[in-house]
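Please decode residue identities from the backbone states below.
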């Protein structure tokens, strides 16, 4: 399984895009992706499979109550985000599940059982 990492120069220059950190764990039965999305609601997150890629995306908006006045320090991130993870061949795409709790998105990617192969008869 490989990760597509964003161009770091782009992430520094465009404050309207951000890239949530994630962990990828593999066990015998599944891969588990945990994405850290503090301050994001479940409705602001999309999880899709496109061809052989898991895509986590969404958008956060700046709090409207601070529209007036000056912001002196802004360390929280706003704008759109996307993370794409190339899926290995042994993932059961139709059985992928996701849950969102306390700012952590957990995506479970079950593995398909290994095929023992079979002998092909030549006719």
């Amino acid at each position: 399984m490989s990760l597509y990492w964003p161009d770091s120069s782009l992430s520094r220059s465009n404050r309207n895009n951000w890239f949530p950190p994630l962990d990828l764990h593999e066990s015998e039965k599944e891969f588990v992706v945990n994405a850290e999305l503090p301050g994001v609601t479940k409705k602001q997150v999309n999880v899709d499979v496109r061809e052989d890629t898991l895509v986590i995306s969404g958008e956060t908006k700046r709090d409207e109550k601070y529209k007036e006045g000056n912001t002196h320090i802004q360390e929280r991130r706003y704008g759109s985000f996307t993370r794409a993870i190339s899926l290995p061949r042994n993932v059961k795409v139709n059985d992928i599940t996701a849950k969102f709790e306390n700012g952590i998105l957990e995506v479970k990617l079950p593995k398909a059982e290994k095929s023992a192969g079979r002998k092909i008869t030549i006719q």
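Observation: The longest helix spans residues 8-13.
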